[in-house]
Design goal:
single chain; alpha/beta; five-stranded mixed β-sheet
């Protein structure tokens, strides 16, 4: 029998709450995600583990066997975490952090700098990637936590997630792009577009055009490098959707300009993601708490007022 640790976390929480919906709220997940995880566990052992009633859900005899061993595993992992932290305290510990480019502006960079000043004995390993790549890195234990950007929620995988703020989005073109007036997405269907992700559920353009019941533009180049995208838009009449912070990156503001559209574009939520916040090291908890404080401070600044979405138009 092969069960993942995040499945055991769901099992423990459902048992503690006696309800799938309450477990979902506690774990910051959706109820369908909790139900899917329970179904995966049941498929693995070949038996149902829950008795569902109008008052909630309780573990049956098969579920109780799993619960007993899940508690033993959870206690053992907590003890291992303490022992490892004690060992790391005698030498340099490390914290592996993933981040998206949209999440890198402002509070995140400030937190990296201040964290290193306060905890110089902790080695920071920071990796930039797209959100779905960071999910995979977390699931495979290649990083400890991530600061991500997402337009359609923060995924359904059973992980801890916490939204810090939301950024507005805008369409970006080069200075010489022929469209200068307010325009609708439908009028831009024949334009050449740049998208951050390959075609599929991760594509931000696919989400936007689907929202307004429009087909995807026929010409889309997919690229995850903002530098290359900026170069392409600077030299050819191409369109892309960027978060409000990206025009603040050095060298972009003078070469690119926002394009006004009639439709409301979804906001991009910036948030924390980790497999299990209870199992983070003390360094991980310290980083998250500093990031929360720095995010609150940043939101009070005039710079943030120009970039933060006042009305989150996400899902």
């Amino acid at each position: 029998m092969k069960l993942k640790l995040n499945q055991l976390d769901v099992l423990l929480e459902v048992a503690a709450q006696g309800s799938l919906s309450k477990a979902a709220r506690t774990l910051h997940l959706t109820q369908p995600a909790i139900s899917k995880t329970i179904q995966e566990i049941e498929a693995e052992i070949g038996m149902p583990i829950l008795d569902r009633t109008s008052r909630g859900a309780t573990l049956n005899e098969y579920g109780q066997v799993l619960l007993r061993h899940a508690r033993d595993i959870d206690r053992s992992l907590s003890q291992a975490r303490e022992e490892i932290d004690n060992l790391l305290g005698k030498s340099m510990s490390q914290l592996r952090i993933g981040f998206t480019s949209a999440a890198a502006w402002g509070p995140f960079t400030t937190t990296l700098l201040r964290f290193q000043q306060r905890l110089p004995g902790v080695k920071i390993i920071a990796m930039e990637a797209r959100t779905h790549q960071l999910y995979e890195a977390l699931e495979n234990n290649r990083i400890d936590l991530a600061v991500i950007s997402a337009t359609a929620g923060m995924g359904t995988a059973p992980m801890y997630r916490e939204t810090l703020y939301a950024l507005s989005n805008t369409l970006i073109v080069g200075e010489d792009h022929p469209v200068t007036h307010r325009v609708s997405l439908r009028n831009l269907l024949d334009s050449h577009w740049l998208d951050w992700d390959e075609p599929g559920e991760h594509s931000i353009l696919a989400q936007v055009f689907r929202r307004y019941n429009l087909p995807l533009p026929s010409r889309i180049t997919h690229c995850s490098s903002p530098w290359i995208m900026a170069r392409m838009m600077d030299e050819a009449p191409m369109v892309s959707m960027w978060t409000s912070v990206r025009l603040r990156f050095p060298g972009y503001h003078d070469r690119l300009r926002p394009l006004t559209v009639k439709e409301v574009l979804p906001a991009t939520r910036i948030g924390i993601l980790c497999p299990n916040i209870g199992r983070l090291s003390s360094a991980g908890h310290a980083f998250i708490e500093m990031l929360r404080v720095n995010s609150r401070d940043w939101l009070q600044q005039s710079e943030a007022h120009e970039m933060v979405a006042l009305d989150d138009a996400g899902d």
